[in-house]
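Form 12-C: Joint structure prediction
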Amino acid sequence: QKEVEQDPGPLSVPEGAIVSLNCTYSNSAFQYFMWYRQYSRKGPELLMYTYSSGNKEDGRFTAQVDKSSKYISLFIRDSQPSDSATYLCAMSGNRDDKIIFGKGTRLHILP
Amino acid sequence: EAQVTQNPRYLITVTGKKLTVTCSQNMNHEYMSWYRQDPGLGLRQIYYSMNVEVTDKGDVPEGYKVSRKEKRNFPLILESPSPNQTSLYFCASTKYPPSSRIRGGSYNEQFFGPGTRLTVL
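Section 2 - Result
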């Protein structure tokens, strides 16, 4: 089983819809959870950074961590065509600062 | 302007010819790291550095070396490149290492460089 699993998509949703992106993981030592957005031919951009379980909201983005289920989510409200990109989840543990990434989900927001 | 610069942006080389990809940040960040991105494999961490003279292996360190003699610079060295190191490489600079738990772990800032596309023939 891979440490971090993420559906590669592509995921296509109409403009204005709520988008739900998810990752599962197997390593219970992960404590720090991150979401990145990557546009084509660009470097990743850190969107959300959270520690342990719970929710974090930033504008139209909400990150949710459920450590008991080893499941994290990123919700995008009122999705826009400019949200079309690849979204990557990433995680890190307490004992070292190595960061493990999911493979990314390609998202298309249809006008 | 906060930025991470990488050079070169594109490089075509031959097997066995040593090369260095430079990375520099102007934000006084502690944590820097190198990643490679390959189709179907995603982004994988090669090496990271917590601070000057402190480096550690990421997920895929084989065939790579790094050094951190100054806080702002974190070069990636391929002593004897091979074709399986053909990839897109990103350097990243992060204000705090994940384990530092600044503000309860709910805050950090990170910037990626523009990427270096390396082809090893």
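Section 3 - Comments
The longest strand of chain A covers residues 30-38. The two ends of chain A are 37 Å apart (CA to CA).
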